[in-house]
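Provenance

Sequences were taken from public entries as deposited. Structures were produced by running a predictor on each sequence independently, with no templates supplied. The record for Carbon starvation protein CstA from Alishewanella aestuarii B11 is shown for reference.
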Amino acid sequence: MNAIFLMLMGLGAMALGYFVYSKFICEKIFKVDPNFRTPAHEMQDGVDYVPTNKYILWGHHFTSVAGAAPIIGPAIAVIWGWVPAFLWVVFGTIFFAGVHDAGAIWASSRNKAKSIGALTGDIVGNRARSIFMIVIFLVLLMVNAVFAVVIANQLISFPSATVPVWGAIVVALIIGQLIYRKLIGLLMVTIIGVVALYAMIYAGPMFPLALPTEVMFGLNDRQSWIILLFVYAAIASLLPVWALLQPRDYINGIQLFIGLGLLYAAVIFASPDIVAPAFNTEVPEGTPSLIPLLFVTIACGAISGFHGLVSSGTTSKQLDKEPDVRFVGYFGAIGEGSLALAAIIAATAGFATLADWQAIYHSFGQGGVGAFIRGGANILQDGIGLDMVLAQTLLTVMVVLFAGTTMDTGLRLQRYIFQEWGSIYNISWMQKAAPATLLAVGSCLLLAFGAGGDGSGGMLIWPLFGTTNQLLAGLTLLVITVMLVKLGRPMWYTLAPLMFLLTMTTLGLLIQLKAFYDKGDWFLFTLDIIILVAAILVILESGSTLTKQIKANKTAKA
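Predicted structure for Carbon starvation protein CstA:
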């Protein structure tokens, strides 16, 4: 099959989902109100609560949720064949991710921009909140620790990406001042920012920068990059959102969409055939079953619990008008779905022959970022004549900027978790931004360097990311469903995806539990049990609340 047809079918279906389904969900189910006073206005403080133009906020939301995971997951999952991965990305984006992201922003905005963890306490109960926040903390710990490793590895493998990656921060700081102080219009700011970023991408191969590979201050190059990344993320998480987070995410979002546009244009001109099988009947030995592992391998790109953390953690605090929920939340999910679709195409049509593809996918877990960059660069070279090194630099910068903006937001969210714990347990010093940020960074570095000692310790718990992340998405949908029931509105548009997710995630946890037991990996085995028990407890608490509310609604009508 030609990749052009796959691209047109996928993008066409997602566009239909946005123009039709999202309009129905936001207007008829969430009933967004243009006159509702959002927390960004009600609680405006110039730091976290800042009313924001919907296009800028979309840039923040999209680039924050679209980390490396929507590339890694789909580019691994095609080992089962491109059809299952394609169907889950497309239908998952339309009926799961879009509803989840928009719903989380709406629910948080209607409750003073509380995080989904704190909201659980109000909607479900304090016991559920305590368990939920542990799951949230684990997801953030995994994301921050692992994405630092992903970024470090790409900067080591492609030193031509160093200048544009770090230069993007300088550009964002300048743009933040231009926008906030209203020195020039948004269109001109956008043009300046995009031109500056692409100029640096072009210059990157001319001025490759790498840290010394030998030990420096007792650290190798990867360890040094990881520490530098966390120092930057800590500073970024303490700055007002308008100073760096918003402009960085906005201009990265525009630049990254242009990058996606170039990749899709190259698909049209190169017209590559998909060499991977539609359904792979000869998967490598040791590959787990398609069901339920497909639905947790592709988390981001179809639906992701991390999105709920961003939606309720930072996005809802910047929502200018409630109808913006549709553009920011649902269209943000469409953006991530289009990235996941590009990853599928690059990882299946970016190779000359089936044998070349099989050489990459020789065991489960192979592919990922490497397959996306290699396959995508081949398509860019064949389709629009881009130099191979420049094409690899462009795609590497895309991956790193996605991961970097997610890490920025993730560390800020982790800081919020520590501050919320400080508030819950009356620990005054933990409620302050600086100590909470140090705890967030310290926990990530403890995992990264304490487990294995080489900075990649976060990879130890990454096998549980998919299931934990999807569990979080299910629980977020559960909170939204309970809220809808309390308001007397239809619940099936969130309850149906919720039931599917919880079923697949629970099965996934059980399968992983057996795999960890067989390997004798007692650390992951224990962590799997903790997450499984937490899921069951929150489901029971939420189910009880949901049942009581349905009965109360029936009694009230009677």
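The radius of gyration is 22 Å.
The mean pLDDT is 87.
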